[in-house]
Hints:
Blueprint: H1 8-19, H2 23-28, H3 30-51, E1 57-62, E2 82-88, E3 96-101, E4 106-112, H4 117-129, H5 132-138, H6 141-147, H7 169-172, E5 177-183, H8 185-188, H9 193-203, H10 205-215
Antiparallel strand pairs: 1-2, 2-3, 3-4, 4-5
Amino acid sequence: MNNSLITKETFYFLKDLAQNNNKEWFSEHKATFKKHEADVKSFYQQLQDLLNTHDEIEKMKMFRIYRDVRFSKDKTPYKTHLAGSFSRLGARLRGGYYLHIKPGGSFVATGFWAPNKEDLFRIRKELEMDAAEFRKVINGRGFKSVWGELQGDGVKTAPKGFDKEHPDIDLIKKKQFIFVRNFSDKEVLSENFINEVNESFKAIRPYFDLMSDILTTNLNGESLLD
Length: 226
């Protein structure tokens, strides 16, 4: 299989855009942008094919280059990165994958960025009842060598209805349950990058399997799916 590659030319364009983040410059270079966007989209589509060899992806989404500046102090009109996400299939499989391409700031992320109210409560109740399996998964040697520590924002003390003295309050406080892996420009531009990303995402599977099990059952372990 011929791998699609992220190229130095795409990085050069994104660097130029960062230096010329205005509508006039972008309009003059829009055709060039469209070419780079198409190349990167091809990379994402090929990555989706690889993901589907070990997971079930419902959809891939490339994010638009245009920034929503309505509620931002930063009024520059364009993002200086390219990004896309992959959603796992339906209610049975939970979580998703994200790839962010930016000179000096490329990374992959996975997990649960903004769980809805019901899912967040269910995760917290599971951790309140018994966090041993969760800790075993995220502290596994092979897992940790790829993904490092669990990340994500949390509340300051304890969520309403939970004991702030609970031994697993460090996990219960979290509002996000995500993992991030950073890549250097050299790594992104290498021929093996697509395989490194795919293998990283493959390594998250024990975590996804556990979270899918939690989010599709009640506290008695009974399935919530039809």
